[in-house]
Amino acid sequence: MGELLRNWRQRRRLTQFDLAEMAEVSTRHVSFIETGRSLPSRALLLRLADRLDVPLRERNQLMTAAGLAPMYAERSLDDPALREAHAAIEMVLYGHEPHPALAVDRHWNLIMHNRAVAPLLAGIPDFLLARPSNVLRVSLHPEGLAPRIINLGEWRAHLLHRLRHLADTTRDPFLSTLYDELAAYPCDDPYDESELSASAHVAVPFRVRSEFGDLAFISTITVFGTPLEVTLSELAIESFFPADAATAQAMRAFGASLEPAQFAGH
């Protein structure tokens, strides 16, 4: 447990003194915990994990390593206990139509999407869409969306930057492996990540060729604000908004062809 705690402190680039001040304990106490000379109470361990912004899944690991019972449940999204959360996700996704929106897990595997996403995935090979379908892989794979993305270099740099940051902060080996895979995909439009900060855009756009013509979107990420369950804490909804008038008009035309959505949140 002490080694795990020290690793998280170092990832956050904090000294023992920094963490002690944040948790309102002595530096000596933090040192004793990290070296195994002292075991913290459940309350103190939770406070330390909170100050270090440790994800709920990893807080359970800290608890187990300290000989304590895990505190945060992990359920399937289909579990009856998550019925209201499931309905809320559907309301966000379908309420965002006619614009695309999708929900992903901690590894960026697709959980759910609204009907505006399907046309963008038309023609993508089954091996990329088979569950668990990874949206980052679908985006950058040479047989996926990559050939259709107009600003592939810029969008690729943006996605790789996000993925590397997430891999660095979580130290999740899956994300590190995924980063290496995606970074190795060919790209005829190389784009240095440092150029993103010098871009003239207010946000990195996603420009893609589709059956509706050339579309441009900017996106937002939505997460549950106060999750106390592992699955919910790791779930994110990415919503895409038109970045120009032509895209807005095309999506309105698509929306006019949709029947009213039927989902659990109704």
Structure in words:
The protein has two domains: 64 residues, Orthogonal Bundle (434 Repressor (Amino-terminal Domain)), CATH 1.10.260.40; 177 residues, Beta-Lactamase (2-Layer Sandwich), CATH 3.30.450.180. Helix content is 44%, strand content 12%. Strand 3 and strand 4 form a beta hairpin. Helix 1 packs across helix 3. The protein is globular and about 65 Å long.
Short key terms for the protein model shown above:
Cro/C1-type_HTH; Beta-Lactamase; single chain; alpha+beta; globular; 434 Repressor (Amino-terminal Domain); MLTR_LBD; DNA binding; 2 domains; five-stranded antiparallel beta sheet; Helix-turn-helix family protein; 266 residues; Lambda_DNA-bd_dom_sf
| Unreliable sequence segments | none
| Gap between N and C termini | 45 Å
The helix/strand order is: HHHHHHEEHHHHEEHEH
Mean of pLDDT: 91
Give the C-alpha Rg: 21 Å
**Class computed from helices, strands and strand pairing:** alpha+beta
